[in-house]
Amino acid sequence: MIDGIEVESWSTEEICPTCGLKGLELRHLVYKKDEGFELFIQVCPKCGFKEHEFMDVLQRGYVKYTIHVKRAEDYNTLIYRSPSGLITIPELGIEITPTSRTLPRITTIEGFMTEIRDRLLALFSPEEINSKIEKLNEALKGKLPITFVLEDKSGSSWVKPKEGTLVEKIR
Ligand SMILES: [Zn+2]
C-alpha cells in the first residue's frame, strides 16, 4: 500500500509483443482515495514494454462476463477474479462461490479449470466424481464447448479475451 494505492502483481504466460519473452507481468492497481479507480498494466520484465490500455474507471456495481469457450485460444483468456468473483461453468455443473478467504487471483481459463480438477481430485474419491473429471478433461482437450461465467457484485473482476473469443459483458 503506497499512499492510498494498492498494487498486486502476477506473472502470466502472456508473450511480449516487443521482444517475444513469455511471461509478461500483470499489475493491478487500486487507488482508493476520492472516487477511486482501478488500472491493469502489463509489463515486460525484460525489455520494459508496458501496456495500459486496460484502464477501467471503477464503476461500482454488478458485472457479469460470459465467455464462450470453443477453441484452444479461448482457454488462454486472462481472468482476474476479485475476492467477490463467482465462477460458474453450467455445462460441467461447477460453481465456485467466493468466501471470506478468497484471494484475488489472475490466471487463464485453462489455469482455473486445471485448479478445479486438482481440487476435486483432492477432495473426492474418483468414484464420486469420475464423470465430472471426464467432462472436465474433455473440455480441456477442446472436445466439449463450455461457457465460463464470471459474476462480481463489486464490479472489480476483469477479463482480457484473446482475439476472436466471444465475451458478453453485462454491467
Ligand atoms: Zn519484452
TrEMBL record:
Example GO molecular function term?
A: zinc ion binding
**SMART domains of this UniProt entry?**
Zpr1
Zinc finger ZPR1-type domain residues are 14-161
Q: Which UniProt keywords apply?
A: Metal-binding, Zinc, Zinc-finger
PANTHER family given in the database record: ZINC FINGER PROTEIN ZPR1
Task: Tell me which family the UniProt entry assigns to this protein.
Answer: Belongs to the ZPR1 family.
Q: What is this protein called?
A: Zinc finger ZPR1-type domain-containing protein
Q: From which source organism is this entry?
A: Candidatus Marsarchaeota G1 archaeon BE_D
The upper taxonomy is: Archaea, Candidatus Marsarchaeota, Candidatus Marsarchaeota group 1
